[in-house]
Amino acid sequence: MTDLQTxxxxxxxxxxxxxxxxxxxxxxxxxxxxxxxxxxxIRAWAITTPTLLKELFADERVSKxxxxxxxxxxxxxxxxxxxxxxxxxxxxxxxxxxxxxxxxRKLISPAFTGRRVTALRPRIEQIVTELLDELAAHPDEMVVxxxxxxxxxxxxxVITALMGVPEDLAPGLRVCVDEIFSTAPQRDPQENxxxxxxxxxxxxxRRRGEPGEDMxxxxxxxxxxxxxxxxxxxxxxxxxxxxAGYETTVNLLDHAIHTVVTRRGLLARLRAGTAGWRHLIExxxxxxxxxxxxxxxxxxxxxxxxxxxxxAGDPFIAAIAAANQQxxxxxPVSDEFDPSRPAVEHLSFGYGPHYCLGAALARLEAAIALPxxxxxxxxxxxxxxxxxxxTLDSFISQGHQQLPVHLTRTPxxxxxx
Length: 417
Ligand code: HEM
Description:
Layout: E1 11-12, H1 20-29, E2 33-38, E3 42-47, H2 50-57, E4 62-63, H3 66-69, H4 71-74, H5 85-89, H6 98-108, H7 114-118, H8 121-136, E5 143-145, H9 146-151, H10 153-163, H11 170-181, H12 189-209, H13 215-225, H14 231-262, H15 266-272, H16 277-287, E6 294-299, E7 303-305, E8 308-310, E9 315-318, H17 320-326, H18 359-376, E10 381-382, E11 404-406
Parallel strand pairs: 1-2, 3-9
Antiparallel strand pairs: 2-3, 4-6, 5-11, 6-9, 7-8, 10-11
Keywords: Heme, Iron, Metal-binding, Monooxygenase, Oxidoreductase
């Protein structure tokens, strides 16, 4: 966010994600459809209200297919080292429209039904217990980065288990996925993408040689059993599942833990049952959406939207953080956790045909991981001033770079939480 922007200029999104909630408020104040500038000077329209977001996400004239509906990309005007290149150039359900989207989504949606996700509970509980044991093995008084050692590890281990990723591939995959979610990346985006695809191709060849009960092996069956899935679509679908499955849930856990440790008395209420973990999870999703701004959709025809002329080919970015602010009954900019309001509405998992396939899995992971963490470490507290926590370098991914905590507290450190 830059202070020097005037309301008549297109809004330049802060690639460093310094204060996403404040930026969301500024966007909202500019109206439901705001001209914005993405990295590289690319113009887009930010959708900032829940009503318009739902309307456009359900509108067949609005597509996610970059290869058919974004002329700037088709004409080669988008450089391959553009920081958001992976978001628009993948070939999987995320960038598919209409019948193609249905075909690609159908291949993995059976893995995410309520029944299949519920069946993962024992595995998730086992992963959580292992991680808590690893944390408990640290010396007392050690400052632990809980984002790295817990918030990231829960979804990472769950998704790699689900996909049958061998242990030696997981760390490398993770580095590349982190880079995709950064809007101020440290590495060349094109090289990063190529490396990620290379590792996932290696995963495919290993599972081809040694199939298992995992999602990768099942997708290979679809690919090899007919022509419904190209090799590129197979690899890029794995890329989607690993990145969507990990990078988002880490932010949910990060912010939910942050909420508990920074709200006096909240943990006591959660443990006494006068506040609910599920409510905390939904309120966290609303107030700190893990995907704060979601790239990209395209107008396939000229459209009149919220009083503005949108030309065919214009891109939209969904300002989910801004839209969610309007859904907060405690006031648009409040992030106070109010347990007296159990129903929480938000758009953090999207809306319409592309609605998040992993929503039930993310909620289950959080519902297991959060109470288990605070049961094991009821005195857990931040080891730094909350104001000192740095945010991720991203306007897409909303989280902290680190969450340094004391797992146990000496009497001197103990407060009245
Ligand atoms: C808190 C955690 C999560 C958040 C906030 C989140 C958010 C989202 C959002 C906003 C979309 C919509 C994209 C669009 O409309 O363009 C989406 C799609 C998707 N998500 Fe999630 N997600 C989360 C967890 C997961 C998990 C755990 C998985 C899988 C293991 C997953 C897999 C997917 C997939 C495959 C899609 C694409 C669906 C499509 O294009 O049809 N997500 N997610």
